[in-house]
Each structure stands twice: as C-alpha cells, then as structure tokens.
Specification:
620 residues; alpha/beta; Gyrase A, domain 2; Rossmann fold; seven-stranded mixed sheet; four-stranded antiparallel sheet
C-alpha cells in the first residue's frame, strides 16, 4: 500500500542523489533520506539539510553546496519548484494537483489506508492489564488496559501478528486475603463479583494487623501455592468469577484478549524447574555458597551499568528454601514468552467475546495451542517496575539470549491519580472511581447532550450513540496523554466533550458521512484534482497523506498518542475546509472533487479512531 509522503520523499532523495553524483559529492541515498523533513508551511512541503552534511565533509559553505545541487536537479511532475533557503536548506514545493491525485486515489481505493507491512512476519505478544482477580478495574487499571489495547491495534495494523495476553496472579497475598474474607466474613455475593470482592478486600486489609488473621492468610497463601486443597479449588473458582466480571468491563471499552495465563498453572506445570536448568547451565546464574545469599540462586548484575550504583545489585532468583522470587518467576515466564522453554500449558475456551473471538485460558485440562513464541514482547507495566523489568532483560542477556532481551519492551506508564492521592486497592481509594462508574457516567453525560440536540431521534439510537460517544471520550482522554505523564483524574475533565476530545473527532466523521449521504452516489471518475487548490484544501490533503507515517511511528515507538494528536489535527483541518469550501452547493466539477476529498477524510478518520478502539458513528 502506497504511503504518499514516503513515495515523495523517495523521489526527492533519488533526485538529490543523482544531482550529487553529477557533482561528485560524496553521499548516499540513506543519508539523503534521513535529511528530509517537514519544514514550516511557508518554507515548502518538504526540506533537505543534506548540504550541511556535504559542506561539513568538504569544508565548504552549505548554501553554495545547496545552490549547486539545485542546479543539477532533474525535473519531476510531483515537484513544482525548489528554493535554497537560510544557510543551505533545499526547500521543495509540491505540485498540488499531482500530490492531490496521488494521495486521494490511494485513499479512495484502499479501505485500510495507513496499513503497512512494517511488522510483517513477526509476532508481538502484548501483556496487559494484569489486574489481580479480587477487585474491579479502577481508573488506574483502565489506563493500562486502554494503552495496551491501542498499542496492540496499531501493531496489528502495521503487519504484526499480535497476541494479547492477560496475566492473572491468583496465588498472591491479595487473593489469599480475599479468600479469607470469603470464608470468614461473608459468602453472599449480592452484586457484580469484582465489585463485591474489592469492597470486601478493603475490609480484610484493615484486619491484617491482627496476628490471628495474618497467620490464617499466610496458611491460605501456602494452600494456594500447593494447589491441591479444597481451599485452592475455591480460590480458583472465585478468581475466575472475578475475571469474568472484569471482562464485562473490558468489553464495554472494546477491549479483547486472546489468552489468560494463570500463575497457578505456571506453578502446576513446573515451568520454573525447566527455567532453572537453563539458568544454571548458562553459567551466568550462580548458586551462592557463602555470605548472606548462601544457598540462593543469584543473577550477578553488579557489573551492569543500570545496577552498579545500587546497594544490592545482585538479584536472587531462587531462595535458599527453594521458593522462587518474583524475578525468578518473571525470568522463567519470559523464557516461555519467547519460545525458549517447551510449553506444558493446556488451554481451554474461557469466554466468547463480543468481537466474535474466543478468549482462551490456561487450564489443567484442555489442549495445546500455539500461544507464546513471540519475536517481540511488550509489557504494559507501571514505572515503579522499571528496575524489575531491567533485571529480567539483563538476566536474559546474561543467559545468552541477547536478541530476545533487546526485543523485550517495558512500556512504562505513570499511574492515574486522584488530585490528592494515588489509587490504592488496599486503602480503598478506588471506591467511587471504578472503570464501570466512569463508563456509566460518561455514557449518561453523552445521552443528556444527545437528548437535547436531537429531539427527533429515536430512543434506541440515542442510547447507542451515547454509548459510542461516552466510551470514545473515556478511551481518547486516557490514550492522548503520553505514557510517561501522570494522569490526575477529575470528573469534570473526563466528562468534558468539548475541544480536544473523541466526540470532536467523531463529530467530524459523522459530518463527512452526512455530506456523502446527502450527495448520493459518488462519481469518482474523471476528477479534476487541480480544482482542489485552495489553502484549506491543500492543507487537508497534506494532512491525510501523513497518516501512514503517523501509524508507522506509533508502531515503532509504541505511542498511541501519536494517532490521537493526528486525529485532532485532521478534524481541525476538515472543519476549516468545510467552513471555507462549499461542497454540496459547489459547481459540479468542484463538487465532485470535494466529495472525493470528504470521502477520503471520512475513511482516514474512521481508520484512526479504530486504531484507538473508538467507534466512528455515522450520525451524531
């Protein structure tokens, strides 16, 4: 599929290379291509700084070099004129008609315009959101889930085979505390299971200072690890009920997964034993015989830059009593993710998802399915886990798996906070801020807006659009912020549908749909692209042409906010075009050309919104 700007950049790079060859200037196409960038609008459509690089080599004035290169450049129908500017920039002004034709024909004929083969032949495994199975998703979990889902969609659109994985820690202390509450306090679940468990967990956490309670919880932890008792069976059943409830929330947000990996199944398959053999065989992992770590299996990390300044740089993987640390478990799990350990997992269907796909789960029964064996592993995990993720990456490297270590990505994100405090499961600060409550409030707010604006619309349609707009607003608000930036959650901002928001972009799509609906059958043949020559038309076309490169950058850097920012820019360009260039009332030739431009804008808006997991309504 053609990327209009990439095609033009390639043309310009070839022209410059040919000119440099004639002048006997030493340069290559890759260096020239890297020098091409988007200048400010008044300086052209594309610019090259190659004269500065050549000038540096030859110790000559870059502007003189640029003038000579310009003088030997061959003509091309895509280039209207070339100017030398500043100290030696080559500024290229595109032929508006030819560029419009190149761009709009490509968009019009390709329903999935922006799709690429960037990751073709590679499998990416994206792990998110890994919420403990004893509480509902709150605002913080929602950020993780939305980020993971958007990254997965962008990678898939960019040619990767994507496996969406959710890790379920059903053996941890939190699960044991909830199970204690279930046995000792109340077994009557009278609301959505995840909400009920979460509220009870807050109550149990308050009692953990009581020695008797703490001792009984520790005993439950041990039973869960051993996995053979009735208590362990009840724990798994309760956790599965909670996860099913959590996925009711996920489905409302258009979030879907391929597989659930349960920690209890990792333990039961003895994955750690096989991993331990690999670790010791590599020679990079040692069993300490003396000192404070005597009897422990340890990764020696003190010589690595990231760990040399730490007081205790070495990482214990297996304690002296034979139990694994979090790092030890994580290393073994990543060996499985990359297909470096034989998989002993069995899988069975866990849930039929609204997108028509089955969600599978590890299980003691079932069949072998080819999950794992990834070329790229992306972990959507909070910034507080940075050193832990680095430790796992470096242990893989020490074991001789450098390629896999370099393909392990920690997509670190800052957490969502309340104005005065962090969300805490134990303290219960999430109460009143669950994902379900945010979705419900956003949908209700959208419904009230739609009810006022469209009194003649049917009730069913109002509610469907309200859900689309409400969920879209929530997803966009979370994904537009860069992962590294802390989100302070405020209701008035989350429910603000004005300005830079998904409803603004969705409305642009709906407006384009309405124009095309009123126009009737679109005649895309014999379009005179020279008629799309106004400033707002040219800006809109150039913005449309950028979409493939934006998607590629988002896939390369794992940054969905690139797409969100682009959509706002595109919606603004479309609004200006719509205000200054009549479409339906224009003379026939202008009308047809502008209708093609509207249809292409609609397509790109829809594709961009889908990459963020947001529906593009036909009417708003």
């Amino acid at each position: 599929m053609l990327d209009p700007y990439a095609a033009v950049k390639e043309t310009i790079a070839s022209l410059i290379y040919q000119s440099c060859s004639k002048l006997k200037f030493e340069s290559d196409k890759e260096e020239i291509a890297r020098s091409i960038e988007y200048p400010k609008e008044e300086f052209g459509d594309l610019a090259s700084a190659i004269a500065f690089e050549i000038g540096k080599k030859l110790k000559k004035n870059p502007r003189e070099i640029a003038e000579k290169i310009k003088g030997k450049l061959a003509e091309d129908k895509l280039i209207e004129r070339i100017e030398v500017a500043g100290a030696g920039y080559l500024n290229f002004f595109l032929n508006a008609k030819e560029f419009a034709k190149l761009t709009l024909i490509e968009i019009f004929k390709n329903r999935k315009f922006g799709e690429s083969n960037f990751g073709k032949g590679k499998k990416a495994l994206v792990e998110f959101p890994a919420v403990n199975p004893n509480k509902p998703w709150h605002v913080g979990h929602m950020r993780n889930a939305i980020l993971g889902d958007a990254v997965s969609r962008i990678l898939e659109f960019s040619g990767y085979e994507v496996e969406r994985e959710d890790y379920i820690d059903d053996l941890g202390l939190q699960m044991a505390q909830s199970l204690w509450g279930y046995f000792k306090l109340n077994k009557k679940i009278d609301k959505k299971v995840d909400h009920w468990l979460g509220q009870q967990y807050v109550e149990v956490a308050k009692r953990m200072d009581e020695e008797k309670v703490a001792q009984e919880v520790r005993e439950i932890v041990k039973e869960l690890e051993e996995g053979k008792s009735k208590t362990a069976k009840t724990g798994r059943e309760l956790a599965e009920r909670c996860v099913k409830a959590q996925y009711e929330t996920a489905f409302k947000l258009n979030i879907f997964h391929d597989v659930l990996i349960w920690e209890s199944d990792i333990v039961q398959t003895k994955m750690l034993d096989a991993a331990l053999e690999r670790m010791l065989a590599s020679g990079a992992i040692v069993k300490e015989t003396e000192g404070k770590n005597a009897g422990c299996i340890v990764a020696k990390l003190e010589k690595l830059n990231e760990f040399k300044d730490l007081e205790s740089p070495d990482r214990i993987l297996i304690r002296s009593d034979g139990t694994a640390t979090y790092t030890g478990k994580d290393v073994s799990f990543h060996l499985w993710k990359f297909g470096l350990l034989p998989s002993k997992f069995k899988f069975k269907p866990f849930e039929k998802q609204p997108n028509g796909e089955k969600l599978h789960s590890t299980s003691s029964e079932g069949k072998k399915i080819n999950f794992g064996k990834a070329d790229l592993v992306i972990n959507i995990i909070g910034v507080e886990q940075t050193h832990q993720q680095l430790a796992v990456k470096n242990v893989l490297k020490l074991m001789g798996y450098g390629k896999q270590a370099s393909s392990m990505v920690h997509l670190a994100y800052e957490h969502a906070w309340l104005p005065d405090e962090k969300f805490s499961g134990r303290a219960g600060s999430w109460l009143g801020y669950t994902a379900d409550e945010v979705i419900n409030e956003a949908t209700k707010h959208a419904y009230n807006e739609i009810k006022e604006r469209f009194k003649d619309m049917g009730e069913e349609e109002k509610r469907k659009i309200a859900e689309t707009v409400g969920v879209g607003a929530v997803r966009f608000d979370f994904v537009r912020t860069t992962p590294e930036k802390k989100i302070i959650f405020r209701w008035e901002e989350a429910l603000n549908f004005e300005g830079d928001s998904a409803p603004y972009v969705q409305y642009s799509h709906a407006r384009a749909s309405r124009i095309l609906e009123k126009a009737g059958k679109l005649k895309a043949e014999r379009i005179d692209y020279s008629l799309l020559g106004s400033l707002d038309e040219k800006r809109l076309i150039k913005t449309l042409a950028k979409f493939p490169s934006i998607v590629k950058a988002g896939a390369r850097d794992y940054r969905p906010h690139f797409v969100a920012d682009y959509l706002l820019e595109l919606a603004t360009c479309f609004s200006k075009f719509y205000s200054s260039c009549p479409v339906l009332t224009a003379p026939e030739k202008e009308r047809n050309a502008r209708l093609v431009l509207v249809a292409c804008t609609k397509r790109v808006l829809k594709n961009g919104l889908e990459l963020l997991g947001i529906e593009a309504p036909e009417r708003m």
